[in-house]
Model the fold of this input.
Amino acid sequence: MAGRNDAGAGAVPPRHIAIIMDGNGRWATKRNLPRTAGHKVGAETFRKIAYYCKDIGIRYLTVYAFSTENWKRSVEEVNVIMRLLERYLYELMELMARDHFRIRFFGDLTGLPPSLEKLARRTYEVSGALPQDYCLVNLCINYGGRDEILRAARRYAADCAKGTQTPENLDDALFSSYLDSAGIPDPELIIRPSGELRLSNFLLWQCAYSEFYFTDTLWPDFTTDEIDRAIAAYAQRNRRFGGVKESK
Ligand code: IPE
Ligand code: IPE
Ligand code: MG
Done:
């Protein structure tokens, strides 16, 4: 699998960074604002960080925007998040070609409000016509790592039933090709702001050998300096992938 046998991180910057954009609600509550105010500022943070990652040469940026579990929240909060996603997708659609981004989605789009689903599919189509070397932003919406694996397993089982695959064929690379992240190398670095030390169902398959960077900063306060710090921390890690390597 891509990246699995690379030498240690050293000075090589990550190709793929993934971020759990967490802490919007607490940011707002601390300011006596409704939680939705945090989502609005958090969406702006996403814009700033995406441009920064592109500018420093990150090829793939994956962001967790809405999980399969986030539907448990109030209808009001969910509606605000869905409207924000729609607004930012419109904007991205307009700017992708000019600013050299491509967009892809991880998650089950069929569970989204129809207008957002349509827009997401259209954005994906437009992205398909853009040059492959543009920075690829993967938006995780209605995404859960377990759900992604289950959807992949179902499709594989269906192909076996049709006779186009056999159970014996299945290996790491083939299974990866059924995931939402098909064709994209695993993230070398996963960042979680907001002080929580868990994955919350993010990229469960792809994180096998990712390096983790946790910070207490809440997502709306997150800055480009934090990205630099995360990359600097990553550069110090000794990645062994199960092998043996002299420590630095
Ligand atoms: C992340 O911020 C955004 C989503 C999960 C949609 P939260 O809304 O989880 O913020 P906290 O964790 O409650 O502070
Ligand atoms: C993870 O954050 C999901 C996103 C950031 C989109 P949550 O706030 O939903 O995770 P928990 O509930 O703290 O585990
Ligand atoms: Mg949270």
About this structure: The chain has seven helices and six strands. The chain has a mean pLDDT of 95.
